[in-house]
Amino acid sequence: MYILYKMIHQEIDVVEMFIMSQFKNKIIANSSFSWWASWLSDNKGLTIAPKQWFGPAYTKTDPIKENYDIYLKDWMVIA
Q1: Measured between alpha carbons, how far is 24 from 32 in angstroms, rounded to an integer?
Q2: Element housing 21 (H / E)
Q3: Is residue 68 classed exposed, middle or buried when 0-12, 13-18 and 19+ CB atoms within 10 A define those classes?
Q4: Phi-psi map region of 69: left, alpha, beta (phi>0 left; psi -120 to 50 alpha)
Q5: What CA–CA distance (Å, rounded) separates 64 from 75?
Q6: pLDDT tens by residue, the chain, 79 residues
Q7: How far apart are CA 37 and CA 23, in angstroms?
Q8: What is the residue-wise DSSP string for 34-55?
Q9: Which helix or strand (DSSP H or E) is residue 33 part of?
Q10: Degrees to nearest 5, angle at CA 77 with 73 and 37
């Protein structure tokens, strides 16, 4: 099986966000930049997001329940 990927490095953040939003499938970090790129995307592919969004000081219970409004319903959340 071959995995296709593209390395991106631009000097302008808005260009990077636009390019990221154009991918069908996305693996995002717990950052607002990658979250917005995925949220703004018109592509209905798979988005994989981390279960723990905030550090331990902000996580008092199960983060998937506490941060339910961070994830869209069709995103896959992984530990």
Answers
A1: 19
A2: helix 13-22
A3: exposed
A4: alpha
A5: 12
A6: 666 666 666 668 888 888 889 999 999 999 999 999 999 998 889 999 998 887 766 655 555 556 667 888 889 999 8
A7: 10
A8: HHHHHHT----S-EEEES--S-
A9: helix 32-39
A10: 70
* pLDDT for residue 61: 59
Q: Quote the crossing angle between the two packed helices 13-22 and 32-39, to the nearest 10°.
A: 50
Q: Using an 8 Å Cβ cutoff, are 43 and 22 in contact?
A: yes
Taking phi first (over 0 means left), then psi (-120 to 50 degrees means alpha), and beta for anything else, what does residue 7 get?
beta
Q: Locate 48 and state its tokens.
A: 């994989």
Both structure tokens of 42: 């018109």
What predicted TM-score, i.e. pTM, was given to this entire model?
A: 0.72
Q: How far apart are the first and last CA of the chain?
A: 25
